[in-house]
Amino acid sequence: MKFSHTMIRVKNIDNSLKFYKEVLGLKLLKTMELEDATLYFVSDEQECCTIELTYNHKLPEAGYNHGNYFGHLAFDTDDMDKFSETMKLHGLEYVYPPFEIKKGTKIAFLNDPDGFPIEIIERK
Predict the structure, then answer these.
(1) pLDDT, tens only, 28-68
(2) Where does residue 32 rank: exposed (0-12), middle (13-18), buried (19+ CB within 10 A)?
(3) Domain ranges in the chain with CATH number 3.30.720
(4) What's the per-residue H, E or C state across the chain?
(5) Ramachandran class of 115: left when φ > 0, alpha when ψ lies in -120 to 50, beta otherwise
(6) Which listed residue, 30, 47, 54, 66, has the most CB atoms within 10 A of its CB?
(7) Is the Cβ–Cβ distance between 99 and 55 less than 8 Å?
(8) Which of 72, 3, 68 is nearest to 39 (CA)?
(9) Cβ contact 103:92 at 8 Å
């Protein structure tokens, strides 16, 4: 198991990109356009620590509060089935069971003991 990326929601992508690139010295790795959001992936030079900045096209009516700024932590696994067995041994269940998002890539979600979302990724 190794750390993959952290996702956070941002209100103003221009300000966020400026901060992460100019203040922290991160680089923009890629952008992914979704139906309701645009994802911006920034990382350090070694690309060992990546942050997914998610800009939702429509801000929720209530806005964001500190409690919902956090998105999820993501971890890579070489074997989703083996990870699933480990979860079962510990009495854990998926919030979203493994599913393929593209050929050779599966994702799944579970919650940590405090309810924070954890994404597990298998890439083949």
Answers:
(1) 999 999 999 999 999 988 888 898 999 999 987 776 755 76
(2) exposed
(3) 79-124
(4) CEEEEEEEECCCHHHHHHHHHHHCCCEEEEEEECCCEEEEEEECCCCCCEEEEEEECCCCCCCCCHHHCEEEEEEEECCHHHHHHHHHHCCCCCCEEEEEEECCEEEEEEECCCCCEEEEEEEC
(5) left
(6) 54
(7) no
(8) 72
(9) no
Q: Which amino acids are annotated catalytic?
A: 119
Question: How many angstroms separate the Cα of 73 from the Cα of each of 14, 35, 56, 95, 103?
Answer: 23, 22, 18, 14, 22
Tokens for 63, please give them.
Answer: 């806005």
Tokens representing 7 are 């996702």
Q: In this structure, are residues 109 and 95 in contact, taking their beta carbons and an 8 Å threshold?
A: yes
The Cα 19–Cα 25 span in angstroms is 8
Q: Spelled out in words, what is the top-level CATH class assigned to the domain 1-68?
A: alpha beta
Residue ranges matching CATH 3.10.180.10 in the chain? 1-68
For the 79-124 domain, the top CATH level (class) is: alpha beta
